[in-house]
Write a structure and sequence with these properties.
Helix content is 80%, strand content 0%. By secondary structure, the chain is mainly alpha-helical.
């Protein structure tokens, strides 16, 4: 119970920091909606008829999965600031489980990511994305799994960084290729073998494909836009989460202990 209280306190701290940042609040709401309208609308007008599916719904699910995954992963960089002002060091000398501290940070950024996508989901009606009640219900566990996966991935990347400047460079290098390898705005049904290998190694691919599998379930476009079954995507993400979480936490705790 003590460790749970620590995790919830850290999570609440991150959520409070998010709501106290008006610029971040506005950007979180406006950016995904604008990108779906601009990119999805443009692709739909020019390629929608030839592709045979709705590009607005396609890009909506892509940005939905990307926002959940990337927001949580990038949110873990706040540990950089905590390390520089010795906040992390004060936490790690306290008599609590190291795993509960890390989980609290991931839980907090998960809450922030979900808060960011809630207005985005409400915009689905404006964008005419066909979200059924079943799809909305299934998106809840999908969002949690996507955020936890992003947190574990961000924690692993955090161990390769020395300061906030390095974190921006590393995240750009890691995430920008995944936009294309994961099928964020364009289909990846056919790839050359070398790009297919990179795509299969991209965690964002499975996050986005899982969201699409839920939203497009039961539609005629399902086979055109969904790469793997939701069960397969869930299994891969669960395995990646376990590996990244254990390895990332072990490396981070060792790094802080030796600091």
């Amino acid at each position: 119970m003590h460790d749970l209280n620590v995790a919830m306190a850290l999570a609440g701290r991150d959520l409070l920091k998010f709501f106290r940042d008006p610029g971040r609040l506005i950007a979180a709401v406006v950016f995904p909606f604008a990108m779906v309208v601009l990119l999805g609308g443009t692709l739909q007008l020019n390629l929608g008829a030839a592709a045979g599916f709705n590009f607005i719904s396609f890009t909506f699910t892509g940005f939905l999965g990307m926002t959940l995954f990337q927001s949580t992963a990038q949110g873990l960089t706040s540990l950089m600031d905590d390390r520089q002002n010795d906040f992390a060091q004060e936490i790690f000398v306290s008599p609590v489980s190291r795993y509960s501290i890390v989980f609290g940070k991931i839980l907090g950024e998960t809450m922030v990511a979900i808060a960011q996508v809630l207005p985005f989901v409400l915009f689905a009606a404006v964008l005419r994305v066909p979200l059924t009640l079943t799809a909305l219900g299934l998106l809840v566990p999908v969002a949690l799994l996507s955020c936890f996966m992003g947190g574990a991935f961000g924690l692993l990347l955090l161990n390769t960084m020395s300061d906030s400047r390095a974190s921006n460079q590393v995240f750009n290098f890691v995430f920008l290729p995944q936009y294309f390898l994961a099928g964020l705005i364009s289909p990846i049904n056919h790839l050359p073998w070398y790009l297919l290998i990179l795509s299969l190694a991209s965690p964002m691919r499975y996050v986005i494909d899982l969201a699409r599998g839920v939203v497009f379930a039961g539609t005629r476009d399902y086979s055109r836009v969904v790469l793997l079954s939701p069960l397969t995507n869930t299994a891969v993400l669960a395995l990646m989460f376990a590996v990244f979480m254990i390895l990332g936490t072990t490396l981070f705790v060792r790094r802080e202990t030796n600091r």
